[in-house]
C-alpha cells in the first residue's frame, strides 16, 4: 500500500494516495505512511493541524530530528492560522526538542528563530538565525527572515547592512531583495528611497 501511495502521490492523485497510506496504517501502523500522510496534508492540503497529528503518530514509532522539525513546522503554520489547539509556544518547544537531539541543525535553528520573530522576541530570534546562518550560509530563507526581523524591530540600519551580502550571495533573488529593501524604506518613511528602489525593480523587470 505504501508503494501504491507513492505512485499516486507522484502523479498528484493526493486523495488516492491518502487512501493507500490509510490502508497501510490499517494493516500495520508504520512510520513511513504517517509521515507521507503528514506531507500531503502540509504541502498540498494546507491542513497543518492534521499534518502535525500525523507527524506525532510517526514520532510515537520512532523519534528523529527530521520528524520533530516537520511537526514543529506544522505547529507553527497551524498557530499562524489561529487554530485553537496549537500555539507558537508549542512550535517553539518542538524546535527546541529537535535541537536537543542535534544542536547544530540549521533548519531547526532557522525555524526556532522564525517562531521567536513571530512571538516578537526579536533579540532571541536574531541569535538563533545567526547560528543557523553560521552553519548553513547558503540558505536564502534564513537571511530573508533575519532581514524581516530587523525590519519588524525597526532596526533599519542592520537590515540595510544586509543588502550587499544578500545580493552577492543570492543574485537570483535580486528582485525579491530589492522588494524587501523598498518595503523597509516604506516602513521607515523614506519616500525618496522608496522611489529609488521602485525604479531599480522596474529596470530589472525591463531587462527580463
State the main characteristics.
208 residues; mainly alpha
Oligomer: single chain
How large is the count of helical segments? 13
Helical fraction equals: over 70%
Distance between the termini: 46 Å
Largest sheet: none
The rough form would be described as: elongated
Let me know the number of strands: 0
Low-confidence stretches: none
What average pLDDT do the residues reach?
95
Order of helices and strands: HHHHHHHHHHHHH
Give the C-alpha Rg. Answer: 20 Å
Quote the beta fraction: under 5%
Structural class: mainly alpha
Structure description:
This protein is mainly alpha-helical and 208 residues long. Helix content is 79%, strand content 0%. It has helices at 2-10, 14-27, 31-43, 48-61, 65-80, 88-101, 106-118, 122-135, 140-152, 156-161, 163-169, 174-188, 191-207. The longest helix has 17 residues, at 191-207. It is elongated and about 65 Å long.
Per-chain topology:
Layout: H1 2-10, H2 14-27, H3 31-43, H4 48-61, H5 65-80, H6 88-101, H7 106-118, H8 122-135, H9 140-152, H10 156-161, H11 163-169, H12 174-188, H13 191-207
